[in-house]
């Protein structure tokens, strides 16, 4: 059985809350067989009357398990079912209660799962929960049940607030000895078969829209139906005492890609706080809360500010464990990938955090650069920071260049003084009418001055976007092209996050930054002359302005006597 997942964030609804409750059973209001149907393995399953309750006994023996589904599907509802699990030696068995839509292919289905993993006699059950969306799951949380779920019935519930999916409640009992108990080490003891799990008192509370509202999808976010109040203290206590696995804390599992976006714990905690007034104490015992809402993050979500430019199938977004959305660019033998900012600016400071390709990155080039729209190459402006990969253990080279009106050849190269693949570092370009400053973690490494009065080209006319890319350049990137890309190490990844732009804001009474006087202090922010001199003295590998041999016939470019 798949474990289901959060519905797509494309929809405008703010909150999805899944609430698992263990509470006192209530009197049945309808016969169970009127509401559900057996779907498979019905040979040894049966209905019987248990006091006031019509009860379904699902059976598992060596020949087959069994399963049922609700007769009706529902859009926005709370589902409750009373269940009593397999008693005694239940190792290898799995009883389930889950929501699932009709008629969707397996690779595109949604599912909300509660799976009860059996155990050897005397050992507690594990409740395994998961959520699938568009066929993708991997959102496991597990709880050690703090009561014996085989002694009596307990109520298990899923509360589903508006998301545009129609769900059907289903249940099953089946053999999963290859993984269910202690990772598959303990197998099903068939001498104890047949095994039975008991279901009764199924009820659904559909969403009823407020007067004057056409349907629940049109309810305002503050609707009281959506605001099912949670006991934050009970939630915290249960998770602290009974949660035994949470994918959102599995650092090892997500060490390469970072945590999924929903693991933004700061956002979850904000929602818990906002919803904190408790349910009645008889109700809230276990809570799984997932939010899909637009909460204000520490920085703007990256996908709001950038868009794929090429290689879209090699670009992905994810949320790191610290709550910062990250873009991963991928390079394999087929192609690389690139993005650009959605907006362009005339005169601004651009900052972005970048973590480069790890280990053997020879032949690869990751970039951050500014460039205009719809300008032919022979007339375009560009401000380049290109990170040239290297063999394992050798340092990266930062290759910088500046193009004005289609002419570049203004290369400066730096040997990075840290491992840029180990963690994120901030790379910045501060472009204003006075000069262009390139910085790493706030330390200036290069300054290109606007000396137009002496005929030095300088970009002033066109707004520039920030672009980023990861591509193969093994014909020149590493040791002049002598070291080629090692494709056995592919795919390669570079990670970008925390993009921010600070447009130039002119002084009071000045129409635009271009009208600021040259002596304006506005343009020298972040320019630490001593730090600049030290960085260049210690880390500059090549400077075109110092290449006498290259320019022996025509002399050095004009800017080399101005900078």
UniProtKB/TrEMBL annotation:
One record GO biological process: glucan metabolic process
Any one Pfam family match given in the protein's UniProt record, by short name: XET_C
Active site annotation, chain numbering: 382 (nucleophile), 386 (proton donor)
GO CC terms, sorted: apoplast
EC numbers: 2.4.1.207
Keyword list, A-Z: Glycosidase, Hydrolase, Signal, Transferase
InterPro entries given in the database record: Beta-glucanase-like, Beta-glucanase/XTH, Beta_glucanase, ConA-like_dom_sf, XET_C
GO molecular function, one term: hydrolase activity, hydrolyzing O-glycosyl compounds
GH16 domain sequence ranges: 1-219, 213-496
Domain of life: Eukaryota
Presence of keyword Hydrolase: yes
SUPFAM superfamilies reported for this sequence: Concanavalin A-like lectins/glucanases
Signal peptide: 1-30
Catalytic activity line of the entry: breaks a beta-(1->4) bond in the backbone of a xyloglucan and transfers the xyloglucanyl segment on to O-4 of the non-reducing terminal glucose residue of an acceptor, which can be a xyloglucan or an oligosaccharide of xyloglucan
Protein name: xyloglucan:xyloglucosyl transferase
